[in-house]
Amino acid sequence: MKTIRSLLFVILLGTLLLGCSTASQPTATPFPESMKGYELYSWQDAGQWKFSILVGTNRKKTLDEIKSADVVLSGVDALIFTLEKIPAGQYITWSSRESLSVPPDDILSQVKQVCQDKGLILNIGR
Asked: What are the domain boundaries of the chain?
């Protein structure tokens, strides 16, 4: 009887310890290399910075494309996570126009540092 209790206690303890282990971070799927680099857009919405990164092209993107729900990144952390998936050596062109704007210097500094660390070439157009 004592052996069964001990065995059940060990099983319960093991199950609890496995349940408390830290979750692993999902693996970032890298973006493909782009001949035209990537286009970065930003704007403020309800006090939060929103971003989108689109594959570079020769045409001007519409606001609907830029602000499409499936490409919007909410907050600086989401932007940084996404930038880290882009292959080194790629151009990132940060554009502002119409209802789009570039965030304050503290956010700019963070993004510049991530791009520098990752080997991305950041161009900021204001």
From this structure: 31-124
